Amino acid sequence: MADLTTDFMGLSMCSPIVVGACEMTDKLNAVSEIEEAGAGAVVVKSLFEEQIQLEQFKWDEENAMYDALHPMMVTVGPHVDYPGPEAHMHTVKKIKAQSSIPVIASLNAVTRDTWLAYAERLQDTGVDALELNLYASPRYAEHTAEAVESAQLSLLKEVADVVEIPICVKLSAFYTNPLNMITRVSSQGVDAVVLFNRLFQPDIDPEKEESVYPFNLSTREDNRLPLRFMGLLHGEIEADLCANTGILEGADVEKMILAGANCVEVVSALYKQGIDHVAEMNGELRNRMERKGYSSLDDFRGKMSKRNSADPWRYTRAQYVNLLMGGNPLGSEGGQ
User: Fold this and answer.
1) CA distance 32 to 97
2) Percentage of residues in the chain with pLDDT exceeding 70?
3) Pairwise CA distance, residues 297 & 13, whole Å
4) Residue 128: predicted pLDDT
5) For position 57, what pLDDT does the model report?
6) What's the confidence (pLDDT) of residue 334?
7) Residue 283 needs a FRET pair 20 to 30 A away by CA distance; which of 10, 19, 61, 177 works?
8) Using 50, 70 and 90 to split pLDDT, how confident is the model at 230?
9) Residue 52 pLDDT class (50, 70, 90 cuts)
10) Is the C-alpha dihedral spanning 63, 64, 67, 69 positive or negative?
11) Contact (Cβ atoms closer than 8 angstroms) between residue 151 and residue 119
12) What is the distance between the alpha carbons of residues 29 and 26, in angstroms, rounded to a whole number?
């Protein structure tokens, strides 16, 4: 039987399928089902600093709602401090205690002090690794690309200095040169990179003329961007590679391994098919490996990367040169 075990950030995993941070992964029963389905690791739902800040504001507002109703009455009840991230830390600790697969905490902060404080707190829960979600939404044209990247790289170095567990960084594709940024990230004491973070994009209902907030699940076509960067980066950086977005079937996992990934993160596949789909993806991947005579993932990891490909240019062409040179890409009916 084909062996699906892989190594990611020094963690031994029974499968290259990692269930990414989502609503399912902060529930004890769901994480148990994920483990039983054969996932290699689980990333607990992200701790968001902005969410903590909003909850703090609501807490203070509600506690002070009836204060000063009478000149002789300043407060109604005793002051109670908001517990902050304590509930999240407790959940992460419980998930780690019950799991036999690697458990990775996820952090999405805003301010430097919070990044460092929460990173240390999450490490103290006993998790096996920490995933940092980096992104930037510049609001001013004067904020240069170099300023954004330098600030993020400096932050990564500081976090790496205060925690001892492995660190992976989940990046967006919105950098002037993602290859350069990923290479620089790898040099900051980071053990792995996850490509790419699927960021929220706003939408408008033109009929109602209102802003809407769709929950957009990924499609298989979305995996072409991370596939390209897996192929370009395999063997070129020290950090491990994890592919994310649009990985819905076992064949998609195989594609990413062929391009050079150590593992993949899945979320949309489970929302669409259920947690048991992890077992189906593992089974499909194993069957495909056995049909091709592969006994382990290392037998074909990076086989189709730029470094090992007979046509390394396939990963660097951004336009339709081959299609244009080959005639009508849609066939005879496409030209009608």
Assistant:
1) 11
2) 84
3) 12
4) 98
5) 47
6) 46
7) 10
8) very high
9) low
10) negative
11) no
12) 9
Q: Positive or negative, the Cα torsion across 178, 180, 184, 186?
A: positive
HEC letters along the chain: CCECCEEECCEEECCCEEECCCHHHHCHHHHHHHHHCCCCEEECCCEEHHHHHHHHHHHHHHHCCCCCCECCECCCCCCCCCCCCHHHHHHHHHHHHHCCCCEEEEEECCCHHHHHHHHHHHHHCCCCEEEEECCCCCCCCCCCHHHHHHHHHHHHHHHHHHCCCCEEEEECCCCCCHHHHHHHHHCCCCCEEEECCCCCCCEEECCCCEEECCCCCCCHHHHHHHHHHHHHHCCCCCCEEEEECCCCCHHHHHHHHHHCCCEEEECHHHHHHCCCHHHHHHHHHHHHHHHHCCCEHHHCCCCCCCCCCCCHHHHCCCCCHHHHHCCCCCCHHHHC
Q: Which of residues 178 and 142 earns the better pLDDT score?
A: 178
Which residue has better confidence, 128 or 65? 128
Q: How far out from the chain centre does Cα 80 lie?
A: 35
The answer on pLDDT for 318 being more than 70 is no
Phi, psi (deg, nearest 5) at residue 96? -60, -40
- Whether the Cβ atoms of residue 223 and residue 246 lie closer than 8 Å to each other: yes
Computed from CA positions of residues 265, 269, 274, 278, in that sequence, does the dihedral angle turn out positive or negative?
negative
Phi then psi for residue 283, to 5 deg, are -65, -45
Tokens of 162: 């205060």
**199 band by pLDDT with thresholds 50, 70 and 90:** confident
Categorize the per-residue pLDDT at 137 as very low, low, confident or very high, splitting at 50, 70 and 90. confident
Rg (CA), the chain: 23
